[in-house]
Design goal:
five-stranded mixed sheet; alpha+beta; disordered C terminus; two-stranded antiparallel sheet
Length: 426
């Protein structure tokens, strides 16, 4: 059997281990461990606060050095930091388990490095002594202390004895180096290899992130579609109505009335452009953000294509998404009444109920509104469902039509001390 790692080489018969490349590979690994420890100890003492950063660098080096022992290069346990998040690189690395495993590996590697330093130094001194002694013994007799009180005298007649010990020493050194390298390699591989559960968790996190991005993209697209349909479209319908009035006034020859209709159409166009900019920027109408739903609805009659009466909208400040949903609910309902019915007036009401608030829009048109046949009502319902709110449509043939939005009480904005009366329309 041919050994592919140092661990397998240790299982071979001695003569096969000595004839392989593994003693030399182990020697290089042990020697680099010793040199790395010598270099790291003073650096770490001076920059102790940067210990995790040094551990990341040494961990990458150790994963490469393990290839000397026959281990395929280990992949990093760190997550890849996107280019746009490089400013958060340090924070991400300090919260990863892989960083602290690399720190443990580096600290353990210093202990192995100290052992490697002792082993390499001892082997070097012993090899030098075994080579130098015969040359000295050929010239004169020398007395050598072998161990404790054991001494050996060498002279011109037996100078060659140390050379017989050299192969034995090299054979033993091969096993010492291979064993030390195998022990440190196993320790480093255990700490530096990415954990299966971490890989699984990372895959799950990436899957969730991708799903969240897709969902957020789809939600944002639907929001823009609804805002364009519910907000900008209302203004455009109003412009069309103003231009129709202008055409009638021109036909009648009333220049002053035509000039007034033109001015109102221009104003309506400016408001449509403003609504479009707000939609693209993803923000609510300024008055809605600053003063709440009641104040925003107060401005609605001035932009509507038919008369709108606001009756006591007594609703407190809600969450921004809830206020936007209620505002565009009213705007879409008014627009639908102007486009699809014979109504000549619309009434908007808002009040508290036991478990929340009700906003309703009623017109005196011909009725017959059906959510299944129009995208406008479906958009209203989708926006409401996103908040766990409910839309109810009552529109018998012949009219009238009343559409109501039920907002749950939990949608009230937190931290608002104002009462319903404080935020109610006066």
């Amino acid at each position: 059997m041919r050994a592919s790692t140092v661990w397998q080489a240790l299982m071979l018969p001695p003569w096969r281990l000595w004839a392989s490349r593994w003693p030399w590979a182990a020697l290089v690994y042990v020697l680099t461990s010793a040199l790395l420890s010598l270099a790291l100890v003073p650096v770490l003492l001076l920059t102790l606060i940067a210990l995790p950063l040094w551990a990341i660098l040494v961990g990458a080096l150790d994963r490469t050095r393990l290839r000397l022992l026959g281990v395929a290069k280990l992949s990093s346990g760190h997550v890849r930091v996107p280019h746009g998040e490089r400013r958060h690189w340090l924070g991400i690395r300090l919260t990863e388990r892989a960083t602290w495993r690399e720190t443990s590996s580096m600290i353990g590697g210093l202990a192995f490095g100290a052992a490697a330093l002792v082993a390499v130094f001892t082997q070097a001194i012993t090899a030098i002594v075994l080579v130098v002694l015969p040359f000295q013994a050929r010239v004169r007799e020398i007395d050598v202390s072998v161990f404790a009180d054991i001494r050996m005298r060498l002279g011109p007649d037996d100078w060659w004895l140390p050379l017989l010990l050299l192969p034995v020493f090299l054979a033993l050194a091969a096993y010492v180096n291979a064993g030390l390298a195998a022990a440190q390699g196993a320790f480093a591989r255990w700490l530096l290899a990415p954990r299966t559960r971490e890989i699984d968790a990372r895959v799950a996190q990436l899957t969730r992130s991708r799903a969240a991005i897709v969902a957020a993209h789809a939600s944002e697209r639907r929001r823009i579609e609804r805002d364009l349909h519910d907000g900008v479209q209302q203004e455009l319908v109003g412009i069309a109505a103003r231009l129709g009035i202008l055409e009638i006034e021109l036909a009648a020859g009333d220049v002053d009335a035509a000039r007034g209709a033109l001015t109102r159409a221009q104003d309506q166009t400016d408001r449509a452009l403003g609504a479009l900019r707000e939609t693209v920027r993803g923000i609510h109408p300024a008055v809605l953000t600053d003063h709440g739903l009641a104040a925003a609805l107060d401005e609605l009659p001035g932009r509507a294509a038919l008369p709108v009466r606001i009756e006591g909208v007594r609703i407190p400040r809600l969450r921004p998404d809830a206020e936007a949903a209620a505002y565009f609910f009213v705007a879409e309902a008014v627009t639908n009444a102007a486009k699809h019915t014979t109504a000549d007036r619309v009434i908007v009401r808002g009040d508290a109920v036991d478990d929340g608030w009700i906003v309703s829009v009623a017109d005196n048109g011909h009725g017959g509104a059906d959510p299944e046949r129009g995208t406008g009502l479906r958009g209203i319902i989708e926006r409401a469902e996103a908040l766990d709110a409910a839309v109810h449509v009552r529109s018998p043939a012949g009219g009238p039509t009343e559409i109501s939005l039920h907002l749950p009480g939990r949608l009230r904005q937190q931290g608002e001390g104002a009462s319903d009366a404080d935020t109610a329309r006066r």
